[in-house]
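haha ok so turns out i had the wrong file open the whole time. this is the CORRECT one, sorry everyone. sequence first:
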Amino acid sequence: MNDDLKIFCGNSNPALADAICEHLDMERSPMEISRFSNDNLFVQIQDNVRERDVFLVQSFTHPVSDHLMEMMIAIDALRSASARRITAVIPYYSYARSDKKDAPRISITGRLIADLLQTAGADRVLTMDLHADQVHGFFKVPVDHLTAIPTIASHFQKYYDLSKMVAVATDAGGAKRAGRFSERLNIPMAIIDKRRVSDTEVKQGHVVGDVANKEAIIFEDEISTGGTLLSTVDTLVAAGVSKVHAGAVHPVFCGPAVERLKNSALGSVVVTNTVDIPDNKMFPSLTRLSVAPLFAEAIRRIHTGESVGALFR
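then structure:
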């Protein structure tokens, strides 16, 4: 790529940023992130970005507030350094879960973060598999919304016998996403009847669809604590499923998730690298696929003015 393109990253997932740069045959540009004695963040761009096309890679992962502030300050620094265009590359946009006012006196935080990114100076956003598609509409700048469904589906096509497989959505809200996954694999789909009792408690009922004596692939956008996923596994086993697999784009793995997944009846868990997984959270049945080639090609197309949507035709 020519010198007009620059890629920077924060502290959330430098391995993904480096893999993106490798696919583009370029080096990641340096950026210093440190803290003052009063805990304020300091960000300094250490490359010339004047009139350059700049992409800043940062997932909103733990600690989310720190990574969010890193991105805001870095975007503002890039704008002050006269970057021609700044694209916020957010592989995992965690605040997409806060997409509606479903309780009194709360913030629709997904929209607030969109406003903050634009105020900081982001000219466009590149993200992947938002929890709620409507978050796309919270932005007043162009948004390219990638999906890892083809990446995960290709893995199952290559290594699994799909003849007795069924894709499963953990609730009605995830049916559209699981439906796209099942269409990609050309397998039937089932839905779990779920009732959310509280933020941490879910009550699941029966399975809508034929799953008896079949292998199930539970497909989700993310795995957080793993509670919903594992209660779905129990429901499917009780319904006569012979084996259960899980596919998810974002391996957030909060709290007891890893221990739960290790000790579960899941035959395999397939995720991507939108979220960095430390070595101590890896386990034998976990497969991590790289979405770096997809992000690299999207960045190349944005830089050259080609269609990003054509990637999924």
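The mean pLDDT is 94.
again sry for the mixup
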